[in-house]
């Protein structure tokens, strides 16, 4: 890859649109559901799966279910995205927090992260 192509690729990466929103992790054998909000849904599953594989997830029940049933038993689902172009960082944080709480209540889910 030449220098111009590399610069173009870096610029495109930095300018890409990142989706914020709320996601669910489901354990098929048990029916358990965990919900959390994320500022970057595209990267969230990779990050969470990595934590679980390396036994570093802070959500004890989720880690225990993963250890018992394995990766194949889990699914990652985006529940709702937030258009954040008109929101301030604080406004986005507040919106994600309220959506997180609403989805956890709706699904009877536990908190997936934190």
From TrEMBL:
This is GIY-YIG nuclease family protein. It comes from the Bacteria.
């Amino acid at each position: 890859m030449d220098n111009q192509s590399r610069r173009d690729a870096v610029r495109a990466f930095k300018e890409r649109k990142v989706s914020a929103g709320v996601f669910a992790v489901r354990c098929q054998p048990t029916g358990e559901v965990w919900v959390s909000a994320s500022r970057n849904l595209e990267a969230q599953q990779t990050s969470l799966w990595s934590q679980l594989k390396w036994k570093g997830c802070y959500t004890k029940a989720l880690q225990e279910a993963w250890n018992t049933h394995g990766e194949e038993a889990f699914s990652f689902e985006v529940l709702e995205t937030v258009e954040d172009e008109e929101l301030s960082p604080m406004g986005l944080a507040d919106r994600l927090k309220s959506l997180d709480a609403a989805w956890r209540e709706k699904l009877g889910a536990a908190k997936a992260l934190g």
